[in-house]
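Thread: assembly with ligand

MN 10:42: here's the input set. Chains plus the small molecule as SMILES. Want everything predicted jointly, not piecewise.
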Amino acid sequence: MIHRVVKKLEERREGSFLTPAYGARSVREPVPKYELPRQELPPEIAYNLVRDELILDGNSRLNLATFVTTWMDDEARRLMAETFDKNMIDKDEYPQTAEIEMRCVNILSRLWHAPDDGQAAGCSTLGSSEAAMLGGMALKWQWRKRRQAQGKPADRPNLVMGVNVQVCWEKFCRYWEIEPRLIPMEGERFCLIAEEALTRIDENTIGVVVIMGSTFDGRYENVQEVNDALEKLNKKTGWDVPIHVDGASGGFVAPFLQPKLEWDFRLSRIKSINASGHKFGLVFPGVGWIVWRDREELPEELIFHCNYLGGDLPNFALNFSRPGNQVVAQYYNFLRLGHDGYRRIHQASQDVALHLSSRLAAMGPFTLISDGSDIPVFAFTTNRRANFSVFDMSDKLRQRGWLVPAYTFPKNRQDLSVLRCVCKEGFTRDMADILLADVQAAVKYFGSLPGHQPRLQGAGFHH
Ligand SMILES: *Cc1c(COP(=O)(O)O)cnc(C)c1O
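BT 11:07: finished. C-alpha cells for the full assembly:
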C-alpha cells in the first residue's frame, strides 16, 4: 500500500495522539501518532499501545478470505521466535540455514517429480509473487537467447495465460515490459484451456502460465492438455514454447490429495513451478519456492555472485536481506508432518470444504461455482431465489466476525459476483457449522425484508 503522509499536525491536533490509555501510570506526555516521539517509553507501555491498536484487526481464524497460514504448532512458533535473527542472505554466516533451504528445495523437487539426474535447481523466496518474477524472468531471458541465436528480433515478448491469473503475473508483465495475452472467461469456463491458448501463441511467446488452484474459484487448470498441445505445436513450428506452473496453492495440495494427477515435471514442457510455503505449505507468511527442472533453464546472466559476506554465493532474488526463520519453519513442517501429515491435514480441510459447499448448495438461494474438490477452496453465487447479493451477505457475515470476501469476475463474466471460502487448517467442521448457521440466519434476515434491494457492488475488500 502506498501511504500518504497526513496533513500538517496542527490542523488535526485532536486526532494526532495515541489515547494515553496507560497514561495515568507512567506516560506524562501525549504520545504522537504521526511523528517520532521525543522521548522513550517503557517497553511494556509501548507493547500495550501497539497491541491494543491491533485488536481492531480482523480475527485471522475467522478469515476465510486469505489463503495464508493462520495457525501453526506451538513448537513451530517457538522455533520461529528463536530464529528471528537469521538473515537468509548470509549463507556464509548461517551455513546451516542455507543447508536447510537446500534440503527444502530437494524435497520439493522430488515431490514435484523433477528428473532424477540431479540437474533440478531452486530457491526460497518471499512468496509466490517473487517466485513468479524469477520464473518469468528466466522464461524471458531463455526466449531472447533463442531468438538471438536465430538472428531474429527479440523486442516484442508476450506471455499467454488466463484472465484468472493472480495479479503477480500482470505485475510481472508490466514491470518487465511483456505483452500479457489474457484469455477471457466465457460462459461457464473460468480458466485457460489449451484450445484458446493456441490461438494466442506465436514465435514471440516466452511461455504459457498454467495455474494449479485459480484464485477466483480454486479450480485446477488442465496442465496435461496444455502440455500435449504445446508438444504438438512445437513439433510443427520448430518453436520451443515452455510452461511455467503457478502452483501457489496447488503445489502443496495436489501431491497429497491428487497424487495421480500429472501436472508437474512428469510433463515435458514444464520448465519451472512456484508454490507458496505460507499457503498450503502451512508456514506463517512469508515464504515461497521456485524449482526449475534443469539448471540450464536458469540463465547465468541472472545470477549474481557477491562476496561481501565471505565466500562466493550465487544468488537469484529480488531482495537481499530476508528473514531465514520461515525457511526454518518450512523444514520443521516437512519433518514434523511428512507425507502422511500433509495428506491428513489437507484431507480434513477438503472434507470441511465439501461439507460446507454441499450444505450451502442445499440451502436454496445459492449456486456453487466450484465445490472445493481441487484445492479446498470454493466459490458460490446467489440465484433467483435470493433477495440479497453476495455483497450483502459478505457484510452481514462480517457482523459476526466472519471474513468471507465477495467480488466480481473479470472479462467476459463481469456480470458474475461470488463469495469465496478458503478452508485451511484451524477451520474446523464445528466452525463450519457455526458459519452455516450464521448464513442461514442472514438468509432469514433478508427474507424478513420483502422490499430489500440487493446491493450490486462491494465496499472493496479483497484477498
Ligand atoms: C497467492 C497466489 C499468488 C501470490 O502468492 P504470494 O505468495 O501471496 O506472493 C500467485 N498465484 C496464485 C495462483 C496465488 O494463489
